[in-house]
Each structure stands twice: as C-alpha cells, then as structure tokens.
Write a structure and sequence with these properties.
This protein has 186 residues and is α/β, with parallel strands linked by helices. The protein folds into 2 domains: 44 residues, no CATH class; 139 residues, no CATH class. It is 27% helix and 16% strand. The protein has 6 helices and 8 strands, in the order αβαβαββαβββαβα. Bound molecules: iron/sulfur cluster.
Amino acid sequence: MRKTEPETGIIFLPGLCFCDTMPCSFLRRIFFCPFYSSFTEMQMPMIFVSKCLAGSRCRYDGGTNLVPAVRALVDQGLAVAACPEELGGLPTPRIPSECCGERVRNREGTDVTAEFEAGAKAALQIAQENGCETAILKARSPSCGKGCIYDGHFCKKLTAGNGVTAKLFLRNGIEVLTEEEYLSRL
Ligand code: SF4
C-alpha cells in the first residue's frame, strides 16, 4: 500500500496492497485503509514495467501496448519503465524476433540472442537499482512474456516458456506478472 494522503488515508494504488496485515482483497475494493495512519512511514518498493505498456512506442513495429493502469503507475512515481530490446541495442522499429529454444532469432533468421541477453541484464540492473520486487511485463513477448511466448515459427502460435528478460527476473527473485494478470487483480 502506497502512502499518499496522511489526513484521509486514501490509497492511490487500488489493486496493489502490499501491507500483508490487512484483508487486502477487501481493501482493493473500497480503496480506503482505516489503519492507514499506522503505515505513514511505509515506503513500498518500486515496480518495474515494460515500457511499451506505459505507452512508449518501443514495440518492434514502432507501436505501443499502452495499458492506462500501468501508465498511471509510472505517472504516479510508483513504477520505473524500460524496454529490454532497446536496452540491448536493437533499433525501433526492428524485425520481430521469437525464441527458438535457448536462442532468439528474428524473422530473417539472424541470431539476436546476444542483444536480448544484454537487454535483459540491463533491465535487471535498472530493476535492482530501483529496488523493484515486482515486474509487470508484456505478455507473450520474446523478452517480456511470462508463462507462454510465441513458438519461434512466426505464425502466432504460442508455446510454454518465458521471455529472456522475464526468465532473468524470475531467476533473480523478482515476481513477474503479465499485464493481464495485473489487470485481473484490480
Ligand atoms: S521488449 Fe518488452 S518493453 Fe520492449 S517492446 Fe517488447 S514487450 Fe515492450
């Protein structure tokens, strides 16, 4: 739960109550914490979010995957946004890539594993420097996807697995939610 208005106890962050001492699912619905005053010194960790979810046009085709609720986290100073593929040195727009086993290849067959791994490491560094314990990452992406990703044949078919950045975050103890999981908790 993020502290905001000491006088009123109004919570600015519906859907993300971290206090663990309250019936959080209930608090999410009423957006008000009657015991707020006892948490006035609490500072909750920043959240790492995929930059395209925050409205940046960093997607492979120059588009965005804007999710207003994720953008709001950044605007309120509750989240830090970054794009692992750009951090890894890939241009925008760029040729789309998919994971093929442990490698990542773009649609023209070029191996871009090194760029994806460099971007994942840079994203992890940003997350760790900001003390992030949770990340909201774009579903199905070869970098950011968690649980299922495109299968490497560029035919929109999914397979079980995690993107390169999601995998590194999970390995380093950062909880990863897709934007769909995050929205389902609001
Ligand atoms: S790498 Fe992640 S943040 Fe960047 S465009 Fe792809 S899904 Fe979005």
